[in-house]
Queue: 3 jobs
Job 1
Amino acid sequence: MTRATADETPATAPRARRGPYRRLPVEQRREQLIAVALELFSRHAPEEVSLDEVAAAAGASRPLVYRYFPGGKQQLYEAALRTAASELTRRFVEPSEGTPTERLAHALDRYLSFVREHAAGYGALLRGGSAVETQRTTAMVDEVRRAAFTNIVEHLGVEDPGPRLGLLIRSWVAVVEATALTWLDEGDVGSVESLRDWLVDEFVAMFAVTALHDAQSARVLRRLLTHYDGAGPGAKLIEGLGGLLLPEE
């Protein structure tokens, strides 16, 4: 059967909870189905979401969902995850304005906002072990981590991070992920703002410790602190560390 330029929902209404039918162009309907699925996967683990629920929430039919996603829920989940990964990646992009810790704090604000908006889906994704997890979904998560790594490296002004500096950044990204999951699981680890400030302090502290063992990290840290104005995120920690982080005379 040839696909029309706009989808058509059968006249029958198999589910009472289905929203009102709207005739949509092909690409717009596909984007709508992905958006609806992303919303459902954000509130429930992937295994708990059925195609019927996606169809009902979109005001469509199950056959219509299969028309756009012949691979069923797995294909739809991957499409929704790809959309979420792209959005999460964009939240790491930060203009080169302000101090490095200020830029880091801004990116964390957007990251934690995403976690809160997509709690169940984020948790199921990062914990792994999902029945719908595949090599492709794992690769999408790795892409987000690489994006975070790349953006941090760019803001540090480093063209070729060595093993220790690279390990520092990847370790901190892992701390951010673990913190977000703990926040979702326990819910009593503090406000979003306090988590953000703590994560910035974690980065500064990890950077300082790494600088004691790695010449490149020490050079980068001294260069960054040369223009540090003593304000903003991480200020108290940097001041408390005193001479350890002061640039060389």
Note: The chain has a mean pLDDT of 78.
Job 2
Amino acid sequence: MELISVQAVKHPKLLLYLTERGLQPSDASPFLSEVYYRVSEKCFFALGFPNDAGGWELRNPYFKGCFAPKAISTIKGTDSHKLQLFEGFMDFLSWRKLHPEVQDDSIILNSLNLLPKLIPSLHAYTMIESLLDNDEAGDRATKQLFDAGLPVKDMRACYAPYKDVNEYLVQRLQGKKISPPRKRRLHR
């Protein structure tokens, strides 16, 4: 995989994808970019969310992946004692759309596999709002947080019975269920 370019999000297909996910460009512009990349001889593009190691989380209607290295994404807020913890960036963006007044520190895991390495650094926070998915993996990750003795508030009831914050947002805005993404890739 080779990174070709990074620019502001303006491609109509990516803007439509954001809209289908309940988000507007203004919700995403401070955080997302349009990333062009090459795999073998084919070029693709996706929404890109930067991580703390210089990699990118990539999403489009047909692809969910990462331009390595894989790492968490940290967004500093105005309250460095309170943290909101998300599995993915669509949930982070959705929560910010639903609660624009909240400006706490946020960590987007980008993979639940990164949680064990992160846990020691979370003890610096006096309150952690866990906004993980309403599924078995989210249950296990939430249990890990509690077992580590962290000051965790499980926020998943706020968007139950939906799987995650983004699905809740889409339901709230459009009144219909989100369909699973197709598995094709966008070509340039």
Note: Helices lie at 12-20, 25-28, 89-98, 115-118, 136-147, 165-174.
Job 3
Amino acid sequence: MPLNLITDAWIPVRLTDGRRQTIAPCQMTDPAIAAPDWPRADLNLACYELLIGLVFMAAAPANVRDWAGNRPDGAQLKARLDAFAEAFNLLGEGPRFLQDLEELPGAPSSPDLLFIDSAGANTARNNADLMVHRDRYPALELPMAAMALYAFQQFAPSGGAGNRTSMRGGGPLVTLADPGTGLWDLVWANVPYGAPAVVEDLPWMRATRTSEKGQSVGASQAHPVEAFFGMPRRLNLVGDDAVTGVIQRPYGTNYGLWRHPLSPYYRLKPGTELLPRHPSSGRLPYRNWLGIVLSDPVGEDGVRQRAACIQTFGQRYRKQAKRMIAGGWAMDNMKPKDFLWSELPLLTFGTPAQAMAERLIEAANLVAGGLRQALPVVLAEGSAREAQLEHFWTATEGDFTAALAELAQEDFEPEATARQFLSGIGRQALAQFQELALPGMSDGRIEQAGRIVAANRNLNALIHGRSTQGKKLWNELGLTPTDLKASRKQQADA
């Protein structure tokens, strides 16, 4: 049975009461729908992107006023999407969704090819698929194949000679503003400003812009909708009632300098071009939140830029409780390492609060550095030390989010916020070191006990501002360390 991704019900969703349902895209406006419900986190992330892209394609708001006043209802959205139905057949004759317009030569590969964490042909042949998987999907039902195809084109990793990455590189970091009130509110919160597309703007409705001679397509050479429907890979799906194979040829579209609205970017140094950010692991510690959760205090000229959808969220939702989703594949070139899915706070700050948040992160970096210097006394070099440092960041995340909540208040007190945060991260660093040090203090070796005492003293001096690094730490936070001599004299005089 053929599948049309506009008119047919094919997207599994979870309702607010816990029930499951399958919907057509126009039904996303139902307030009872909580979220997509695919069996894989990467497909859920891609599904959010797809739905946002469909709305941008058919009903893009021109500006914040248009966004606030002309939100389509289910009937309006259906009418606008139906105009694109001819471009959204998954199989059959004529143009097919996200597939090459021409019939590609070659033998089909397994549908596993569509999943980033599947073993490639060489990996399977060399029996090297330790962290990836082979032969999981000998056939795919059409809805799963459609969602996997979209995820693969949006997040495409390096794949050998001529196999292009997505316009954000392999496994980009995706950040979505989430009002926390259901699927449709999340989709509408992230739809970019712009002008609706027409069918001819979709890249599979024309001959593929190939790249065998290094050609690239810049943002000025295509409608912005191609950010959501790019085709870096030349693919044909094979099958009828199910997808049983995928034909791939090299040299799909090579995308030049685009800025995708759902991803954060960074510069290597001020004045250079913006580059898409990527997850480094399955966690996003708050030391990396600047330019993802938090704006760069420098503004648009800064080296760390939040996703456009996050930047505009503050204009759209001023008083509502806010959070964000961050997700994406952490890649080592073409090899997947981990998948990130994290729900993070998203608060609106003025420039002074943004600058204070940056100083808090730098202060935590200094304390983590002090802990790192102390650990060699109690831990051999290797993964155990790194685990302790990761634990520090995880354990102090609550202190940081509490500080952010204070910074979001119009009348926040910088000194009080800084002191409370420093107290929390200092306690954590000392507690971790001292828990490891106790066995060394009781083993009877005087030289070991002496080294532990010295390391503990140095860490204390850092945290209380009595060393060179400690003074830098306190100065970073705009605080003045307590003068111990003066304090003791006052106590003696009293």
Note: The chain is about 35% helix and 10% strand.
